[in-house]
Amino acid sequence: MNSKTILINKKPCNDNVLKIQKMLDCHPLTAKILANRGCYSIGDIKSFFSKDLSQITPPSKLKDIEKAGERIYKAIKNKEKILIFGDYDTDGVTSASILYLFLKPYTKNLIVHIPDREKEGYGFSPAMVDKFTKQGINLIITVDCGSSDSEAVSEAYKKNIDVIITDHHKIPKIPEKAVAVINPHRKDCSSGLTHLAGAGVAFYLTIQIRKTLRENNFFKDKEPSLNKFLPLVTIGTIADVVPLVKENRIFIKHGLNLIRKSPGKTLFHLASSCGISCRDITSQDIAFFISPRINAAGRLDHAKICVELLCSENISKIKSISRRLNLLNQKRKDIENSIVSEIIKKYQNLDKNTKIIVEYSDKWPHGVLGTAASKISSKLNIPSILFSRKKNMLKGSARSIDGFSIYEAIKKNNAFLEKFGGHSQAAGLGLEMKNFHEFKKNITQYTMKTLHQDLLTPVKEAEAVILLDDLDPSFMSEIEMLEPFGLMNPYPQFIIKNLIVESNTKIKDIHSRLGLYQVNCVKLNRVTGFIFNNEEEIPGYLSQALVKPVPDKFKKINFNLFIEAWE
Q1: What is the DSSP letter of 287?
Q2: Contact at 8 Å (CB) between 497 and 543?
Q3: CA-CA distance, 558 to 477, in Å (whole number)?
Q4: 3-class state of residue 192 by DSSP
Q5: Nearest partner of 369 among 392, 345, 343, 339, judged by Cα
Q6: 139 with 77: CB under 8 angstroms?
Q7: Measured between alpha carbons, how far is 112 from 131 in angstroms, rounded to an integer?
Q8: What phi and psi values does residue 538 have, to the nearest 5 degrees?
Q9: Within 13 Å and on the Cβ side, how many CA atoms surround 324?
């Protein structure tokens, strides 16, 4: 963030704020935050704070889930060979691990397949079916993928392999030859669970399988508790940046609580390798530390090591893979930063005629292009498309800015492409090298015509305009009660005006620690603020700053003040 950002103060209805404050007997700023989240009634507030697992939507509401439960029970009973097919990102890896750990005690004929990003690409493809046939697979269960893979499902059907799809992505056409397609985005699915991540859908399937097994008197002893899988549901859900509403909030609250109280060997050592204590882990710790390490394996190595990690009881193996993920994540950051620096340097003097970045290199690994493009779009506030070149083919990732659909821009120019897919803010695409320059020219022209100038200045919203005095211990404790934070419940940010910068100390050349002073404050007029990844000159006076007060984990001070933008 920088000084060019426009700061906007949200202004909820005062009557709603007072009503919430009276209902909860809470800090007025907490009431404002809840009003900004659309919590107006006692029902809204109960839903927001609910931890009651009994209140989640019943699994039976998901189309085809009962069919899937019956088919999996049959496979277990008949000792058929089951393959769990997952995606190579954090959501896919956690989804596969949930299903594997649940089924493992009931069958010895169980394997997990995570595709190699470079060699096999995304999703379940027809080319994989021959391999699975030779392995003697009878049933394939996809997790976090499969909705668009009708061709592969049909190929499996021809080879007498049944396929159950579990997914949460948009579904263009239901694969007809699948035994079951569990996807809340189906037009004929009335579950209302479109907010679930792949891990949430996989967890719902375990609930249904347990119910089916119970109805068939399968359990000789006590039936298994499913709560132990909620930490994995939590990691997958947070990592996939799905809306943190309804079931997702309930799952994550329980998952975080379980990680804090009893993390288990894997999560304890994985968190420790990130420098995190499980005892006070937050949703942001998972988003910024845990998830990137799991994703790094799929980007630069093979994500199957993450399934091995999450399903292992061997401490030596857990520590070894955790260290490996740390190294891969650092490598990912180094490559990513190199790409971002290269592009920023090339486009540092943007003019009004530059509204999109389209570049390629044979030195860029494809696995890091999405995160690199995201950083570039964030820094320059224009869409970006980056390609990795291998021989005559280009494979790319695109990222956009708020208000502009990069998917539509690519779709309008799909005549130059071999394939593409995605949504308004992110897309993947591939084309032959001979078509690159025409594609770049045409998508640049399209963007010039359709991307309005007013979208090129980033806008950041604040919950309220406050004084430093407002950030008292009671309010900071109430902020923590609003967890988990993420999409549709972002971490609260506020505008503070008239800050005098009394000191400015550089940290590692790109971060700043500021001594800040605000006049007319009685209880708290001096604080320490931090600005990360900033190359701009910081003035001695900030007319207004967008700040994020984060409770200090070491309890030495009440909070740390992170400055996100300023004027």
Answers
A1: I
A2: yes
A3: 9
A4: coil
A5: 339
A6: no
A7: 13
A8: -95, 120
A9: 19
Q: Please check whether residue 239 is in contact with residue 296, taking contact to mean a CB–CB distance below 8 angstroms.
A: no
pLDDT per residue as tens digits for the range 338-365? 999 999 999 887 777 789 999 999 999 9
CB 144 within 8 A of CB 95: yes
CATH number of 356-450: 3.10.310.30
Q: Phi and psi dihedrals of 451, rounded to 5?
A: -90, 110
Strand order in the sheet with 162-166: 110-113, 82-86, 139-143, 162-166, 180-182
By residue count, the chain amounts to: 567
Q: Provide the CATH topology of domain 6-49+460-566.
A: OB fold (Dihydrolipoamide Acetyltransferase, E2P) (2.40.50)
**Topology given in CATH for the domain delimited by 59-321:** inorganic pyrophosphatase (n-terminal core) (3.90.1640)
Q: Read off the pTM.
A: 0.93
Angle subtended by helix axes 198-215 and 65-77, to nearest 10: 60
Contact yes or no for 17/45 (Cβ under 8 A): no
Helices (H), 221-350: 230-239, 246-261, 264-273, 283-285, 291-300, 304-310, 315-346
267-316 pLDDT tens trace: 999 999 999 999 999 999 999 999 999 999 999 999 999 999 999 999 99
Residue type, 132: F
Among 457, 462, 333, smallest CA distance to 29 is for 462
Of 389, 475, 466, nearest in space to 430 by CA: 389
Are 85 and 111 a contacting pair, CB within 8 Å? no
